[in-house]
Specification:
Layout: H1 6-34, E1 39-43, E2 50-53, E3 58-61, E4 65-69, H2 73-94, E5 99-100, H3 101-107, H4 121-135, E6 144-145, E7 152-154, E8 157-163, E9 166-171, E10 181-182, E11 190-195, E12 199-203, H5 206-214, H6 217-220, E13 223-227, H7 234-247, E14 251-254, H8 259-269, H9 279-282, E15 288-291, H10 294-299, E16 305-306, H11 309-318, H12 327-339, E17 341-342, H13 355-368
Parallel strand pairs: 5-6, 12-13, 12-14, 14-15
Antiparallel strand pairs: 1-4, 2-3, 7-10, 7-13, 8-9, 8-11, 16-17
Helix pairs in contact: 1-2, 3-4, 11-12
GO cellular component, one term: chromosome
Subunit structure: Homodimer. Heterotetramer of two Top6A and two Top6B chains.
InterPro entries: Spo11/TopoVI_A, Spo11/TopoVI_A_N, Spo11/TopoVI_A_sf, Topo_VI_alpha, TopoVI_A, TOPRIM_Topo6A/Spo11, WH-like_DNA-bd_sf
Length: about 375
Amino acid sequence: MSADTPESDTKLNEAEAREQLIDLAADIYDQFERGDIPQMSLPTRTKSNIVFDEDSGVWVYGDRTSTRSANSVRGARKLLKAAYTVEFLAQQLDEDRSSTLRELYYLSESWDSDEAGFSDQDESNQLVEDLEIVSGVTREDFHMRPEESGATLMGPLELREQTRRGERDIHCQEDVGEGGYQIPNNPDTIEFLDHDIDFVLAVETGGMRDRLIENGFDTDYNCLVVHLKGQPARATRRITKRLHDELDLPVVVFTDGDPWSYRIYGSVAYGSIKSAHLSEYLATPEAEYVGIRPQDIVDYDLPTDPLADSDVNALESELEDPRFQTDFWEEQIELQLDIGKKAEQQALAAQGLDFVTDTYLPDRLGDMGVI
């Protein structure tokens, strides 16, 4: 097997991950040896510390940092938890095992120090993110995975997947059922073999994904339909980026017309605050937004729901969000605040079950130059 296969690349990443973990533990030990109070510095993970990187076209953490230091009881506990987690992850890599983020939370209850256990899963999740940031290695290479996201692909793509039982070649139309091909936790183990894809359509909801497949949109337009399944998991964003970068495919994002769905698009295109340290690995800044937009509510007289107070607050926040500070988004958000309404993708069915595939998407994608 050649040195540049997905499997060999994965093994190299795993070796680097273990080395970086050991280096982190050694750094804390060295601070003890020097008589220093152990500490670990990380970027401050807030919206105010997000900056736009002109070179990569994504949002990343700025220069502000925060410190986990043993000069307080709270800080010492955080470093203790980090040390135990590093030991667990290094052992997991040695044994070629994997675990979920949820399992890590429960495993900590069996550690020989009560102080090292996590109070809730949010705390253990954040610590894994901290380790990613300070090590420069992704959690996938630590063999950490989330609970199954269930996100899928459907379209004219043939790929090779690495599994514990060996390689298998899969065509994402011919070799899968109506549910499509389920995206694995680490999509970097996938090799793209062949395709007839003209563009990638990332879809928020399962209902709209099923409508597109039932109406044959993937076949009629040589489209790869990616089901985001709400706020997309990291694996979904990573494979979307790979499809764009490696196969030179346009990516368009099709969501509901509400502020939370706009943020789904933002996470695909520009990254999120929570994973800003991985924006260059996960985000696809060339991705374009295809709908539902507030202007559609007016133009198509779509069935709507009134904006809740939380929706209004979210829209007003987005006007200050650097990811949405463009003429298009400012115009659409201000229009939505003015009309006080939001609409779902499925609201297009008011014009008929075929309207979305026969009229709405072809017209919109044609105007955008995608088809």
